[in-house]
Design brief:
- The chain has 650 residues and is mainly beta.
- Helix content is 4%, strand content 55%.
- A hairpin with an 8-residue loop joins strand 9 (150-161) and strand 10.
- The longest helix is centred in the middle third of the chain and has 8 residues, at 308-315.
- The two termini are 19 Å apart.
């Protein structure tokens, strides 16, 4: 029925070939350039907050990781929705106050990835995925323009997965809405972004022994004993409440309201006898941005008596409990006001501007036995110049905290890119330096069993120098990163923080598409990385994903993509995980070595604005032992996933 409905759609999405930075070869996206189009054709583009660059929705069907909205280089603790980490080392390079909890960031909405749309017709996109062990993912998006001056959008994402092992079920709900308005004289404009994230992830501390994986008595992985939570009695429902013995429960709500007034020059353009168009070019802008965020990070174990040995070994808790639950909760709220002025030197171009401003923040923290309150004053500036011929793009941006709890924090970013030619593509140089306080969870952590203070930590300093080459014609992307870290903060065991002295990281990523034959394509993704200096951190020296596909257009409108995929990383000491803190922990005891590459087979197709995905993952478990993502955290068995994506125009 869905396929028949898709075939009857009147809306057409024009597609073309492009290469996205770091996405590995050519993909397709809607053509949003201005043409003389029939009335049933959609023109859709979106912008990010504070960025005038237009983007388009990806309509390709050759990469399942885009459907999951998680890069292929990420791995979880065994189940979709569990704590996740990038195998390609990616530091958080942001200044300012940070609560310190980031193991679930990949799943969550935020203002940085909020999209402000412009569409010629109302657009709706629905996605549904069902997988083994009752895994389900639901995505919904709707956006429409109300006249020429108002747009709103709504997004919803649901991840619900009981998992293969005990006490690792997940139940996430993310909602976001955006609104963009423009006054009739085009001088006053507003942007609104609101989101709500609710993360619920079971925590099991890993399996008790890897011998269970080869024992025929434990073919059903739910019967394997785990370190935390005891025998599983969890109950998962898609939209109801889910019962979890032990879980990390994160909640975040945030609203951002930005409004500004422009001074400039306007002209009335006569289009025909009955139509005039008013064009306004801003020259100077004053802008105010208000934001309020509240967050709660909680770890709760309702049966701590079942894991006395685990907590005593890793957290030094006294091995005598009273039957009460173990709870650690951090609550934070941040109120922010920013006032900025902008100048646009070149009339008709909002891609060339100078911006200066100041931000004042009030931050409140609440713990079981204590409350805290901080303030911050931050000055910032930005310069952007994208030339009219679209060949040169220069950006410079800086933040500096002059007063408050984060006094001395700063961030400096400089970027220069040049479009060389259709044959040579685009090249970019990037420099970034960040000086910032460690996440607050490293400095103060409180639970119902213990309180840890670590106020001797000093500021962290990170530098990044990058070279990026993107070539759509030759279908490759190359990025070389060189990082310098000083006082990088981490956990040296499950609860003691430490800071690493000066060390470096050289990192090279390369993505390439090769057309083997008319309908056969080879997509290659590589990463090479190496630390230099005395560092406790470890990464795989090499990571790769290889996809061999057969792609053909059948019956005019059916785009078929089928093939196999394999992922591999070299042996390394993978981080373990502190479930109480919700942080990954470097270790040098257990080296993770893949028993075999991770193998998957897939059949994807697109019929106009309807997509379908059929994918079998972990085929390697039919002939090899389960791989590990972290010490005592094993991958699931064979997983079958079927997904649908349907876009339509009202």
């Amino acid at each position: 029925m869905l396929i028949c409905s898709a075939l009857s759609l009147k809306a057409q999405i024009n597609t073309g070939r492009f290469s996205g930075m770091g996405r590995g070869g050519a993909t397709n996206k809607p053509d949003t350039s201005q043409h003389s189009m029939p009335p049933d054709t959609l023109t859709l583009r979106y912008y990010f907050l504070g960025d005038p660059t237009p983007h388009t929705i990806d309509s390709s069907a050759n990469d399942f990781s885009k459907y999951l909205q998680m890069p292929a280089s990420y791995h979880t603790l065994g189940n979709n929705g569990n704590a996740a980490q990038n195998l390609i080392f990616t530091p958080r390079m942001k200044d300012g106050f940070d609560p310190g909890f980031h193991s679930y960031d990949i799943y969550q909405f935020n203002h940085d990835n909020a999209r402000l749309y412009h569409t010629t017709r109302p657009y709706t996109e629905l996605q549904y995925l069902v997988g083994s062990k009752q895994e389900q993912i639901i995505d919904a998006l709707h956006t429409q323009d109300r006249g020429e001056r108002i747009n709103f959008s709504f997004e919803y994402r649901k991840i619900n997965s009981p998992g293969y092992y005990q006490n690792q079920s997940t139940n996430h709900n993310m909602i976001r809405a955006t609104v963009r308005t423009l006054s009739q004289n085009k001088r006053y404009h507003t942007e609104v972004s609101w989101y709500s994230n609710k993360i619920n992830s079971g925590e099991n501390g890993g399996i008790k022994s890897d011998t269970f994986l080869t024992n025929s008595r434990f073919k059903d992985r739910l019967t394997i004993p785990v370190n935390v939570g005891g025998p599983s009695s969890q109950q998962n429902t898609l939209f109801g409440s889910s019962t979890m013995n032990v879980k990390s429960a994160y909640k975040e709500n945030s609203i951002l309201f930005s409004h500004g007034y422009d001074w400039g020059k306007g002209d009335t353009i006569h289009i025909n006898d009955s139509t005039d168009y008013y064009k306004f070019d801003p020259l100077f802008r004053i802008q105010h941005t208000f934001s309020y965020s509240s967050s709660q990070f909680e770890y709760v174990d309702n049966q701590p008596d079942s894991a006395v040995a685990y907590y005593s070994e890793h957290y030094d808790f006294a091995p005598v409990y009273t039957g009460t639950k173990l709870d650690a909760m951090h609550k934070w709220s941040t109120l922010s006001n920013d006032l900025s002025v902008m100048q646009f030197p070149l009339r008709g171009s909002q891609s060339q501007f100078i911006k200066l401003g100041a931000t004042f923040e009030t931050i409140k923290g609440s713990f079981p036995d204590i409350e805290m309150k901080f303030t911050n004053l931050m000055l910032h500036g930005e310069y952007r110049n994208l030339t009219r011929n679209q060949k040169w793009d220069f950006q410079a941006k800086g933040d500096f905290y002059t007063a408050g709890v984060n006094t001395g924090d700063y961030s400096i970013t400089g970027s220069l890119s040049r479009y060389l030619s259709r044959t040579l593509g685009n090249v970019q140089l990037l420099f970034r330096n960040v000086n910032t306080e460690p996440g607050y969870a490293y400095r103060f952590f409180q639970s119902t069993r213990q309180t840890w203070y670590n106020y001797g930590l000093t500021k962290q300093n990170y530098s990044q120098l990058s070279f990026i080459a993107d070539n759509p014609k030759l279908m490759y992307n190359l990025q070389v990163n060189y990082y310098i870290f000083n006082n990088y903060t981490y956990l040296k065991d499950f609860y003691h923080p430490a800071q690493a002295p000066l060390f470096n990281l050289l990192q090279v990523t390369f993505n390439k598409q090769i057309v083997i034959a008319k309908r056969f394509n080879w997509y290659m993704d590589y990463a090479f990385q190496q630390f230099q200096g005395n560092t406790p951190f470890h990464v795989p020296a090499a990571w790769t994903r290889q996809r061999l596909t057969f792609e053909k257009t059948l019956y005019l409108n059916l785009n078929l993509v089928t093939g196999i995929e394999a992922k591999y990383f070299s042996p390394y000491y993978a981080d373990t995980y502190s479930n109480l803190y919700g942080l990954f922990v470097p270790q040098e005891t257990t080296k993770i070595n893949l028993n075999s590459p991770e193998v998957a087979a897939f059949v994807n197709f697109r019929i106009r604005s309807f997509w379908a995905y059929i994918r079998g993952e972990n085929l390697n478990t039919f002939f090899a032992k389960n791989n590990y993502t972290a010490p005592m955290y094993a991958d699931p068995n064979f997983v079958l996933r079927i997904g649908l994506r349907w876009a339509f125009v009202n």
